[in-house]
Amino acid sequence: MGKAALGLAVACAAVSCTVAALLVARRVRSRGKWNHVVGILRDFEEGCSTPLYRLRQLVDAMAVEMHAGLASEGGSKLKMLLTFVDSLPTGDEKGTYYALDLGGTNFRVLRVHLEGGRIMNHNFAEVSIPSHLMSGTTKELFDFIASELDVFVQSEGDGFQTPSKGERELGFTFSFPMKQLSISSGILIKWTKGFHIEDTIGKDIGLCLQQAISEKGLNMRVVALVNDTVGTLAGARYYDEDVMAAVILGTGTNACYVERADAITKCQLAKSGSMVINMEWGNFWSGHLPRTRYDDYLDADSLNAGDQGFEKLVSGMYLGDIVRRVILRMAEESNIFGDVTPSSLFDPFILRTPFLSAMHQDESADLREVGRVMKDVLGISNVPFKVRRLIVEVCDLVTKRAARLAAGGIVGILKKIGRDGAPGVVGGRVKSDATNKMKRTVIAIDGGLYEHYPKFGNYLQLAIVELLGEEIAQHIVIKLSNDGSGIGASLIAASHSIYADN
User: Fold this and answer.
1) If DSSP codes are grouped into helix, strand and coil, which group holds residue 454?
2) Choosing from 76, 87, 175, 497, which is the catalytic residue?
3) Is the pLDDT of residue 20 over 50?
């Protein structure tokens, strides 16, 4: 019995030692995997970094590309498109004007009555475009738009005044790539956002709408054809004469600004001494931009690989997917969600930016919003607290980089137009003490990324102060401009009205 008991004790001790050894090995492996996750995070952090010197390089590169784009067609990654908008609203406009805002699967028609420097009355209707018209013919699409415009006009009430003689005037916001020919005409370069109407490519969009309106019997003239960024600038300028630029920070991103006519050396057409330039800055690129392996993979998998490099780092369409790609690598290489990587992490764009914002701005003690998004959107339950904190940090890195790059772009515009407070040469002219005196400058911003994501906005504002310094930055105002694209088009129609003098 003694020997048997001794043997059993030895066996139990051996089993205990084996179990202990397995537990220690598991802890070591677990610690090693977690250290690997942290290493992935730190590498990503380094790749996303935007120190001040790099942002200043970005500012300089943006200004250089702006100069090149104004000097010749195709001379820059920035298209620097002429808009032929050489007269912006002043607040003196009067009367009733219309706008049509086409930028996606819905369009809006608006009616605005102006008087005494105020928008006295305005209303709108939103119309969903039937899916078959998005791949039909040009005539079918614009006949449908004209019919809905006719219905809207017939609803005119007593609060609106139409011209006693002559035509109603309309501004058309068309947020697709086009080459502008005049204030009211432009050639479609390509469709985006789900449209595929081949016979529209190369046609004058303003003329297409005007023909459909005329065939409908509507007494209305297309006065202005603009994109959403230009509309935003005009809408903000109506209330504040110091608005010099507008930036879209939403699903996509773009910028436009007011440029002196003599600085547009590739084409001298402006009659009022200035013209709004549509930068199309989403396609900006520079070796100074911080780009990681995840950005390279996203670009390679996109439908426009090699294009819109700046937009893919800044705009709301892509930020959530960059976060997804980082989390996917962590899950595959370190099992942060278990031995099997959740299949949802392989779905492109499943993690949209609103979800990123919700997780990033979760201030609860247990990060329950992070847990909810992971469960409801990605189907991943019981995410450990330390993994939730890790996800928040990834969100922060992606968002901070995007906001600081957008700020660099804005300061690049300020540098180009001589509103950055730095001495030097602007448009071939040496700044004197008088011209170098800082003027109040307003940048109008529209888009859900800026409006609904406070941390993004905070990072952007802080980066502008960091780049300019507090003394100069106090003269720069970043102003949210809601619904600028639609109302702005009607205001441009008013500022270019043939009845304005009457």
Assistant:
1) helix
2) 175
3) no
Q: Is the pLDDT of residue 186 over 60?
A: yes
Mean pLDDT calculated for residue range 468-483: 93
Write the DSSP string, 111-124: EEEEETTEEEEEEE
- Catalytic residue, chosen from 101, 228, 362, 420, is 228
pLDDT band at 118 (very low <50, low <70, confident <90, very high): confident
Phi-psi group of 347: left, alpha or beta (phi > 0 → left; psi -120 to 50 → alpha; rest → beta): beta
How many alpha carbons lie under 13 Å from residue 261 in its C-beta half-sphere? 11
Checking DSSP bridges between strand 106-115 and strand 178-182, what pairing results, if any? unpaired
Token couple for 484: 């600028």
Cα three-residue angle 183-189-193, rounded to 5 degrees? 105
Q: How far apart are CA 81 and CA 181, in angstroms?
A: 10
At 114, the amino acid letter reads L
DSSP alpha helices (H): ranges in 379-453?
385-416, 433-436, 448-451
- pTM for the whole structure: 0.87
Residue 495 annotated as catalytic: no
The residue from 108, 329, 388, 404 that is catalytic is 108
pLDDT at 127: 93
Task: Give dist(CA 278, CA 245) in Å, integer.
Answer: 10
**272 CB neighbour count, 10 Å cutoff:** 10
Per-residue pLDDT reduced to its tens digit, 408-435: 999 999 999 999 998 765 544 545 443 4
Q: Which amino acid is at 101?
A: D
